[in-house]
């Protein structure tokens, strides 16, 4: 039986898009670069802030100017991380229900570790046991290292764990770690994209996760996801 759920943060538990875009555009303005639309930023998110800024600056921007832009972004975002950021509808009851049913819950994100911990503390308090972000020396998703360290901290094993996320990075992280990935259609990429990337199942509302996890054991779950 599944007893552990590892969640992605941006686009899965929290809608962070507007705050991320505000941070990107603040930095671009400081550099006199053209701003990016919300839709563009949505596509740029997923591989951490360095990639986010590399994708946002104009093509051909030097490494030095990209780093300056990154610095402006970090400066701004660290104090504006929670202006418009909110949990998606149904996430808070889902986490409460998972806790009540005895599931162990972790969060693994490619955003700054401090931002991940602050946001999880603020919104999910004791419903999330382990929350990890981008830390120096630990490869970011889709490398599986962050999954292994979270499982160790939770005292969990791969065979009883699922990963839940909204992007290709999450699908690949899960599979690189040997876990099934349940995609969420409400995030930054959508159902069709996640199915194409190989998500084992895609859900359209947080409450669907609970049904999936509690109604079937792991081998049956693997069969049942194909029918979704
Ligand atoms: O900051 C990012 O690039 C993505 O963050 P996430 O891993 O929580 O989706």
Automatic annotation (TrEMBL):
Pfam families: HAD_2
One GO term describing the cellular component: cytosol
BP-aspect Gene Ontology terms: DNA repair
SUPFAM superfamilies: HAD-like (SSF56784)
GO molecular function: phosphoglycolate phosphatase activity
NCBIfam families membership: HAD-SF-IA-v1, HAD-SF-IA-v3
UniProt name for this protein: Phosphoglycolate phosphatase
């Amino acid at each position: 039986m599944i007893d552990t759920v590892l969640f992605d943060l941006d686009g899965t538990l929290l809608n962070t898009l507007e705050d991320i875009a505000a941070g990107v555009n603040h930095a671009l303005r400081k550099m006199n670069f053209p701003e990016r639309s919300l839709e563009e930023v949505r596509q740029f998110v997923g591989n951490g802030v360095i990639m986010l800024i590399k994708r946002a600056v104009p093509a051909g921007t030097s490494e030095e100017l990209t780093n300056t832009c990154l610095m402006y972004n970090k400066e701004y975002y660290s104090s504006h991380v929670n202006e418009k950021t909110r949990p998606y509808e149904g996430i808070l009851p889902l986490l409460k229900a998972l806790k009540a049913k005895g599931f162990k819950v972790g969060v693994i994100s490619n955003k700054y570790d401090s931002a991940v911990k602050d946001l999880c503390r603020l919104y999910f308090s004791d419903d999330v046991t382990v929350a990890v972000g981008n830390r120096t020396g630990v490869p970011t998703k889709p490398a599986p290292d962050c999954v292994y360290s979270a499982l160790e901290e939770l005292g969990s094993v791969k065979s009883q764990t699922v990963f839940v996320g909204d992007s290709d990075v999450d699908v690949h992280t899960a599979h690189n770690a040997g876990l099934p990935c349940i995609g969420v259609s409400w995030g930054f990429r959508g159902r069709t994209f996640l199915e194409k990337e190989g998500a084992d199942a895609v859900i359209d509302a947080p409450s669907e996760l609970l049904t999936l996890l509690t109604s079937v054991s792991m081998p049956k779950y693997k069969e049942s996801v194909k029918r979704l």
